[in-house]
Every structure is written in C-alpha cells, then in structure tokens.
Amino acid sequence: MASKEPEVESIGQLIEAVRYARERLSARHLWFRGHACSAWSVEPSLWYQSYRLVDGRNMLQEFRLKAPSRHIKCPPRKEGAEWLTLARHHRLPCLLLDWTESPLVAAFFAAAYNQDQYARQSATIWVLAPTKLNQPRLGELGYKDTAAVPYMTDEHFNPLVNLAFGSKPHQGPVCRLALAVRCQEIDPKMMVQQAAFTIHGPQAKPLNKMQGSDCFLRKLLIPEPSKERIAEELALLGIRESTLFPDLTSLARDLAGKKE
Questions:
Q1: Cα-based distances in Å from 143 to 133, 147, 150, 167
Q2: Do the domain assignments include residue 29?
Q3: What is the mean pLDDT of residues 131-150?
Q4: Does residue 191 fall inside a structural domain?
Q5: Rounded mean pLDDT of 108-128?
Q6: Which of 29, 109, 111, 183 has the greatest count of CB atoms below 10 A from its CB?
Q7: Paired strand residues for 151
Q8: E strands, the chain, where?
Q9: How many domains is the chain built from?
C-alpha cells in the first residue's frame, strides 16, 4: 500500500517534510523541484509541452545562433553541455529538467511564481536523491563511480548531449537513461537559484513513473488553500521574484508590487 504524501501548509512544515524525506531516502544530499500543479509528471518540458525531439534540436540550434547578440557571456560553440544548461535556464524546452538545491526556491516555484493559471490547484515539491537515481544507471555510460553526481561536461555524457543537438542518431540503452548531473554556473540565475539538472534520454520514462522511484524520489503536496500562506512566508524570508531572477524587469515588478 502506497504511503500518503506528506502535506506542507507552511515553511515550518516544509522543513519537517524535508527531514522526513531525507530519512526515507537515506540520503544526505537532496535536490528539489516545485510544480504549480500537482498533476504534472517529473519529465522535461520538451515532452509535456508535446514537442518532438527534432523540435528540441532545432530550437537549440537557433538558440545557439541568436543568443550571442542577447547574452554577454555565451559558451564557446563546441561546448554543448554548457549551451544546454544556459538554454534550459532560460526556459527553452530540451532534454534537461531543472532542479534546485534549496527547498525554499522549489517552494517559490510551486506556490508563488506564475500562479494565475494554477491558483486553484494543489502544488507539489518533488524531492530527489541524485546519487540514488544515478547509482544503478551510471555504469551504462561506462562511469566507474556509480554513486557520483558528475559534471555534464564529463566525456561520459557526450552521447546524451549529442542526442539533444541531433549530432548522433538516437538509439541504444542511452536513450532510456535519466541521470542527475552538475553544471558550471554560467548565468547569475543559476547561482541564485542553486541550479542542478537531470538529463533525460528521448525514451526515458518520467522519473515518478520509473520502476523503483520510491528509492530516489519523494512527493510533498501543498494543498491549494496553503499556497498563499507559503508565498507570504517566502517573501518574509527574502525569497521573491527579484531575488531569484536578478534582472531589471523582475526588480521593477517587485518594487511596483511593494507599492500596491
């Protein structure tokens, strides 16, 4: 019988729920992801927004062509892993799924960010043990330390990165993999949001639908009536749009909101 999802109605309860998840997962290091709608699966936006793999490849190629005129510090063209992380952190659908090392940041995206469309729906904070996800899977890429969370620039990840850019055909076991990876911080948002990523092969199942997902993944439920309270508590703690999106538009919107 499946255990009931812990409910989070305040930041205090979030702290307790994270402690509980850490104990259940037997993991010291956890990542978090906030979903404004509890019905969403844990998969890259390329899939839940109904794009095809070829669409993702085309968008990435065009992003790489046009980004240098809009972004001061772009990676060298050949650094596919860095381009992937930069594109995803600017919300381009691709084979990456973004996570954070902070449960407060995840709570912001679950309960406080872009809520107009989902204000009347319960939210979710997903809790991931990255080493537990990787342990049975890294060996398929020839990686010896299967309990590690390697950087995506590691050459072992080239097959998955190449799939995203379409430089190699997608076939074989690598297409079914989903792995936790670290990344170089090449954008201020990645720093303040404490970014981390999972990379997913085109045939990988959503993380919450994988066999044995209870070993590496837990779900915390935020009931719809509790969203507003959590958003207010986050603001008191300095977790707001202008601190997580360090640009002038977010700053102006934040200042205008304080005046109202």
A1: 14, 10, 9, 22
A2: yes
A3: 87
A4: yes
A5: 89
A6: 111
A7: 182
A8: 31-35, 96-100, 123-128, 178-181, 195-200, 217-222
A9: 1
Residue 3 lies in a domain: no
Three-state secondary structure call for residue 130? helix
Angle at 87 between CA 82 and CA 93, to 5 degrees: 130
- 39 pLDDT tier (thresholds 50, 70, 90): very high
* Full domain range(s) for residue 249: 11-259
Quick one: what percent of the chain has pLDDT higher than 70?
96
Q: Is residue 4 included in any domain, yes or no?
A: no
Q: Which of 55-59, 90-94, 100-104, 140-144 has the lowest mean pLDDT?
A: 140-144
- How many Å apart are CA 177 and CA 53, to the nearest integer? 15
- Residue type at 126? W
* 59-65, long-range: CB < 8 A, 24+ apart: 59/87, 59/92, 59/93, 59/94, 60/84, 60/87, 60/92, 60/94, 60/164, 60/165, 61/165, 61/166, 63/87, 63/90, 63/92
| Entry pTM | 0.91
**Whole-angstrom distance, CA of residue 136 vs CA of residue 134:** 6
pLDDT value for 1: 37
Extract the tokens encoding 173. 């076991």
Amino acid at 55: D
Supply the mean pLDDT for the chain.
90
Q: How many Cα atoms sit within 13 Å of 238 on the Cβ side?
A: 3
In this structure, the number of other CB atoms found within 10 A of the CB of residue 144 comes to: 8
Compute how many other C-beta atoms are within 10 angstroms of the C-beta atom of residue 197: 25
CA distance linking residue 83 with residue 239, whole number of Å = 27
Q: Cβ distance 244 to 237 under 8 Å?
A: no
